[in-house]
Amino acid sequence: MFVNTSRRIRRVIVPIGAGLLVLALSASVWALALRERANKRLYLEYEVYKAVTALTDIVRLQSLQNEDTQNVLGFGLYGGDGKPLTIYGKAPSSMPPLDQHTPNSRFILGKDSVILLRVLGGDLAGRRMMMGNDRMSRPRPSSPLNPLPLVPPYQDAANKTPALSYIELSTASYRAEESLLILTATIASMALLGLYVVILVMNRRYREAKDREIKDRELVELGEAARTIAHEIKNPLGVIRIQCGILRRGADEATVAGLSLIDDEAVRLAELADRIRRFLKSSDTKASEVPALRFIEEFVTRYSGVLGTTIDIAAGAVLMIDESRMVEALDNIVSNALDVSEQADEKPMLEARIRHRALVVSVFDRGPGMSQESKSRIFEPFYTTKARGTGLGLALARKTIETSGGAIRYADRPGGGAVFTVSLPLL
Predict the structure, then answer these.
(1) Number of Cβ atoms within 10 Å of the Cβ of 54
(2) Over the stretch 327-346, which tens digit does the pLDDT of each residue have?
(3) How far is CA 226 from CA 44, 220, 230, 265, 378, in A?
(4) Which tens digit of pLDDT belongs to each residue from 2-14?
């Protein structure tokens, strides 16, 4: 139990650890992106303040030129009564008169532009009167984040002294940079998510490889034990058969029948031992060039009358197989089809065709088919659904076919039944 718990813990450590790491990296990416976005916002405010100051100075000294209004959608200077002194572009034709409730500056960031309303002449006599003589209460600098109330309006509008400035700048480049920043953060997050998926897939494959390694090690140990048992069981079975033959002499009919049953079971056990030894034997085969058409025709002749056939094989097609072992492999498949078709009205069918430089042999039956569990375990050694089956027939058939470079697969037959398909490469 402790081993299973430890194994389960190890299985979840990598996904959880990788997930936390990816989340931390993704959070860092977005934190940097949002911080850079805030910095760009501050830089935008700085650029707007710098632009309004520069344009105000230019207007005081001379008229605006085209090169001065690049990226400027609107600019205006207004007196304390809100009347315009200078207007350019989309600047309003007038402003509300300034009073004590008017903020020192207003920064408005829209979708396509940014607007700054700023009161000019910050060191006014009225402000000094409002603040008093205490030096600790002198006015703080103007800031969009810290607006200060304006003192009473200018009294020298007759001299055309500007009291309020208005500027509107295009934010196309700012929005493009902001979108690029968000896009970069999104792509980075998606890349981290993809990395997490890759880690999960690699971890799953690693676990599967480890499980296969453990299972293969257990199978090797089981195979060695089974090989030893299969070898050692041959001699006792031979002795049993010999003794049965001796006891038959002079025995009555009932005793002979019982001895025949013992002898038959001994033969069955001997065949099972042979199958186990063949399955556990190395994959070395005596492969030779075999004409595909001749091989299939000779094979189906053995099932004449009980097996329907369709053969479409070119005369020059050649296989590289161990013929005797391949016949045994196909025998297993056809025998299973005949067994499950005993209660069916339709006899099994064998089709042999050439497809994509391979001999494809399909065996169809109208039996009950297979359950979902059987489909996943059908080629496992010692797995069988028959009462007296050994579970080695299809496992041995798959080993023989794969040793020849081929493949075998199972599928449900439309209308009921099963289809086993064997594919063998041609030379």
Answers:
(1) 12
(2) 999 999 999 999 888 877 78
(3) 81, 10, 6, 19, 20
(4) 445 666 777 788 8
Number of neighbouring beta carbons within 10 Å of residue 269: 16
Q: Is 63 exposed, middle or buried (0-12, 13-18, 19+ CB in 10 A)?
A: exposed
DSSP per-residue codes, 201-220? HHHHHHHHHHHHHHHHHHHH
Rounded CA-CA distance 52/87 in Å is: 13
pLDDT in tens, 84-120: 998 999 999 999 999 888 898 999 999 899 999 999 8
- In degrees and rounded to multiples of 5, residue 413 shows phi and psi of -85, 130
Q: Are 401 and 391 in contact (CB under 8 A)?
A: no
**pLDDT value at position 58?**
87
* 360-417 pLDDT per residue, tens: 999 999 988 888 888 888 888 777 777 666 777 888 899 889 989 999 999 999 988 9
Crossing angle of helices 393-403 and 253-280, rounded to 10°: 30
pLDDT of res. 102: 86
**Rounded Cα–Cα distance for residues 375 and 381 (Å):** 14
Bridge partners for 408 per DSSP:
422
* 337 sits in which H/E element: helix 323-340
The enclosing H or E element of 280 equals helix 253-280
Beta bridge partners of 170: 113
Calculate the average pLDDT of the chain. 82
125-132 contact pairs (CB < 8 A, 24+): 126/151, 126/152, 127/151
Burial 295-308 (b: 16+ CB within 10 A, else e): bbeebbeebeeebe
Closest by CA position to 361, among listed 339, 382, 332, 386: 332
Whole-number Å distance between alpha carbons of 181 and 177: 6
